[in-house]
Write a structure and sequence with these properties.
Helix content: 25-40%
Radius of gyration: 20 Å
Number of strands: 7
Shape: globular
Number of domains: 2
CATH architecture of the largest domain: 3-Layer(aba) Sandwich
Largest sheet: 5 strands, parallel
Distance between the termini: 13 Å
Strand content: 15-25%
Order of helices and strands: HEHEHHEHEEEHEHH
Oligomer: single chain
Strand order of the largest sheet: 2-3-6-1-7
CATH class of the largest domain: Alpha Beta
Structural class: alpha/beta
Length: about 210
């Protein structure tokens, strides 16, 4: 995890020092449950940006990205503009979750639409079909996540700086459970810490059989 933190800091430092928004976007790749979303949230908090998450799993229609034209029944703007509206600012951090699970369907390629969103030469005038007006996305910090890099389409992968993350060791899982997960659950359920104690050996068994 220290290597991941170092690469993230290097990426943000280069972006800051060069004052550039034309570079690649970060993509955290690894199995589920290893903290990809948590890292993205921490980056947003440290930069003072609002955080928005867009789940891309199973999307097959480019209108989910670009929006529907108003002539369609129940038309609405796409997920990018919805996220911008919810963020209430023009420079949020938007997490594109599970970018490897985009699929091309009968109604265009969502990957091609997303490529336009991420292209610094085009995203300063991104046009959502519902709004039918150019919208500037150049101040948005996009970060992607993926479980399987081999399933990301080539042109989309070329726009990304991949940071591969491995699962936690058993000892790391135990530390996370003791320092964060258990205290959080006790607080949420109104249980006094003195009334519930989980032995380290029990946590070790759970950690060895968990998938992340």
């Amino acid at each position: 995890m220290e290597d991941v933190k170092k690469r993230v800091l290097e990426f943000l430092a280069v972006r800051k020092l060069s004052n550039s928004i034309t570079g690649p976007i970060l993509c955290f790749a690894g199995p589920p449950g290893i903290g990809k979303t948590s890292i993205a949230k921490a980056i947003a908090q440290s930069l003072g940006r609002n955080f928005e998450r867009i789940s891309l799993g199973g999307i097959r229609d480019e209108s989910d990205i670009r929006g529907h034209r108003r002539t369609y029944v129940a038309a609405m703007c796409g997920r990018i503009i919805q996220a911008m509206k919810h963020a209430g600012s023009n420079n949020p951090l938007i997490l594109l979750d599970e970018v490897d699970k985009l699929f091309s369907g009968l109604h265009g390629s969502p990957s091609a639409a997303l490529l336009e969103v991420l292209d610094p030469e085009q995203n300063n005038s991104f046009t959502d079909h519902y709004l039918n007006l150019p919208f500037d996305l150049s101040n948005v910090l996009f970060i992607a996540t993926a479980n399987d890099l081999s399933k990301i389409e080539g042109p989309l992968a070329d726009r990304m700086e991949i940071i591969e993350m491995t699962g936690y060791s058993t000892n790391e899982k135990i530390e996370i459970a003791e320092r964060h997960l258990i205290p959080r659950q006790l607080l949420q359920h109104g249980i006094c810490p003195d009334h519930l104690r989980i032995q380290t050996d029990a946590l070790r068994v759970m950690g060895e059989f968990s998938y992340f």
